[in-house]
Amino acid sequence: MHENGSSPSYVKVGRSDNPAAPLAVEEATAEIRPSDTCFVMAFVPNALDLDATISALDLRLGGVPVFGCTTAGQITSEGYESEALLLLAFPKANFRCASTLLDRLNPLSTTTIAAQARRHAEKFRHTAGWNRLALIFADGLSKQEDVLVATLEIALDGLPIFGGSAGDGLLFEKTFVLHEGRAHTNAAVLLLIETNLEFQGLGFDHFLPVGTPIVITGANPDERLVYEINGAPAALEYARLVGCPTEKLSPEVFAENPLLVQHKSNHYVRAISDAGTGHALSFLAAIDDGLIMTLGQGQEILETLEAGLDVRDQKGRDPDFILGFDCVLRKLEIEQKQLRKEVSDCLKSHRVLGFNTYGEQQSGVHMNQTFVGVAFFEPEERALN
């Protein structure tokens, strides 16, 4: 853990909460030197004019590649924020990157995506002694992340893949990914990254399964809609299970009472985004007829965050920084429990930088209400000096 206020050595951080895009970009890029920068990640709040932001970034960064997405919140050097433009500049001295745009996610062709990913990986020359990983930023409303990340896991042959689904605050209307100076919807950006830093992946939530099994008895998997649970209208049965009047169902209730699905020996959250017409429930990850689920009971979220972020390298050192993809429903629960300051302090002390998502990807699985991250550590050769 680092003292609050200390900055990472291996990524340059820029932020601005100016509501005018050109001024926000000017402020956020003030400390970034394009000549030293391999690529920039941009996490854009939904209130900021996206086209104006992209144009200003292109102007200010002089052709440095910019990747990223619209968000449901940002994790900056100040902790949790909702209206800040966050830029992360990755230095040429420590990073190499190759990108490709995976468009037309819906409908998704697994053969096309797999072939494109393989070609992309084959063209990215390996640097001796450097470590390689993949990052994915996907349209958070495409409803295709489950198939996408499972396809990439196979196509990239064991390369560790981490990612987050783009958001637009809590509007759930339209989300965008950024690639080659343009905003794209119904698309994903795949980044292959090499670094001379050591890294570790991390992923955790704070829910344990409780109660009896719950069966999805009526669903539209393509739209992630559930019509019936246990043979009853979905919203009515869910409200009964969590002890809440149906008319009081809200994002906050869904955040505290998710449903879990078991995959191998792990339970993953399948979060509900809203209750629609006809008592249907909309989910943020894959569901299907006959799926057996359990209700999730939350553990102490601040304790699980502290424990989950407490990672070390082989020499026992703290990460230089952690790139974090944190579900917006976690942020909602944290704010409802009035823990925002404590959580922000924890994120700052662990140098977490990233955004609040509509879903997270790790180990070939798309999930919700989870923190997924990549902890980057000082390079071995520097540690030996």
Protein model, in words:
The protein has about 375 residues and is an alpha+beta fold. It is about 25% helix and about 40% strand. The chain is built from ten helices and 26 strands. Strand 14 (about 205-220) and strand 15 (about 225-230) form a beta hairpin. Helix 1 packs parallel to helix 2 (about 50-60). The longest helix is centred in the first third of the chain and has 14 residues, at about 110-125.
List keywords for this structure.
385 residues, alpha+beta, 2 domains, eight-stranded antiparallel beta sheet
Multimeric state of these chains? single chain
Q: Per the principal axes of the C-alpha atoms, what is the gross shape?
A: globular
What is the number of domains? Answer: 2
Largest sheet: 8 strands, antiparallel
Measure the end-to-end span: 22 Å
The rounded Rg comes to 20 Å
Which range does the strand content fall in? 35-45%
| Regions with little confidence, pLDDT below 50 for 5+ residues | none
Give me the count of strands.
Answer: 26
SS-derived structural category: alpha+beta
What's the mean pLDDT score? Answer: 95
Helix content: 10-25%
Treating each run of at least 4 consecutive H or I residues as one helix, how many helices? 10
